[in-house]
Amino acid sequence: MSDSPRRSWPARLAGWFGADDSWERPRPEVSRADVGWAVGLAVFGLVALELVRSVGVLRETGAPWWVQWVAVLTGGALLVGRRRWPVTVAALAAAHMVVVGVTMPLVMGQFTMQVLYFVALMSGVAWARDRRWMLVVVGVIVVVMFTWIALQFAVGNAAQDYVDDTTAGERYGPLPPIPAAVLLTLVINVVYFGGAVVIGQLQWRSARDRALLERQAATITSQTEELRTRAVTEERLRIARELHDVVAHHVSVIGIQAAAARRVMDRDPEGSRAALAGIEGSSREAVASMRGLLGTLREVERPGAVDDGGRTPQPGLAELPALVEACATPARHVSYDLVEARPGAAGRLGTPIAHSIHRTVQEALTNVEKHSTATRVSVVVRLDDVTGYAEVEVVDDGRPRAGSSGSGLGQLGIRERAASHRGTVELGPRPTGGYRVRARYPWRDAASDVPDSPGGLRLDVPAATTDEAVR
To answer: Which domains are assigned to the chain?
Structure first.
């Protein structure tokens, strides 16, 4: 049983008519179509009037012909503003109906005039902006019309006309002539006025529903465009991070090993060859990574393109030992430890998070090479699929190198990668000396590896400190 209070029938009626609806139907200007319809009905009304006059029906009408013409023409003229001023036109049409009905009832009863009054009342309901005021005006019109009909039978000559046309006391059906005439007139007018009101209200509700659908379609289009723009922006950020990581790391390694080769070229040919081999390997890795990014861009430009298998997969945890080994030098020791809560956790980690961990380590080691005096660097990856997190920590014992500075884009990329997985990042100098980069990600299994939706990315990047800006 519902606890909501039952609405009274006036409240239900007002709700059906949209009395409390905030939507307002637009107010159109008077168009050529409005004028055309009004003129057409007026001309048709005059032609019909003269045909009826020729039959002899209007011989008892005392008003001159030109007054009858004025009645028809003014009734048609009202329809010009039926959409622009709907309630006013409906009220004027009702007044016109009463005046013409009292002075020239045969003219008011013509088919064309009845169509004019019906359309005026229907338009008043269909096009009214203020629904409460429309209910008041239409209610007054209906009450006045039925009061007028009742007076015609009570104190007028409507009943006498039926008596004069029938034999007194004679019955032709189940009801006597007078009650049958009253009931027939009542049914006809209920259908006439009720039909005009109901059809007008259905037109108003149909227009409101169309407007709501158009508004929803516009909102969906706007949101779709916003999501598309956001997706393009996020893809650009991802590619920018990849480019930064690839170029910064490999170029840094190439520069360091080229300098080492130059220094030992004369006295240590073997060391020089090893350094050149490192340069060759780094350059190949850089080219392979760049080829992968270019392939991604081509797939964006060619939706549905099939991967030809020529690109290497994105680096993950398996490539970390080689990455750490490449950053080690005689003057700098770099260690790597993988801590798993359960054996095989590394194989169960999702590819996007593994790739983010790899890029985080790569960026941290690049910063050490370019901007730090560190002699010892520790890389630790902790995987806990029991409590549900994956963490990477890179710690060094150095200080910022004099004369070196960075753009800060590398650390911004670390934060953005963590934010894309709803992870957290800690960057900054340690109280005991050195620098720490720590990123923690929520655990995601490879089996349920689904990229985050574009709407899930939240970038909360605070302003970098002085030491962070250096790196």
So the answer is: 9-223 (no CATH), 314-449+457-471 (3.30.565.10)
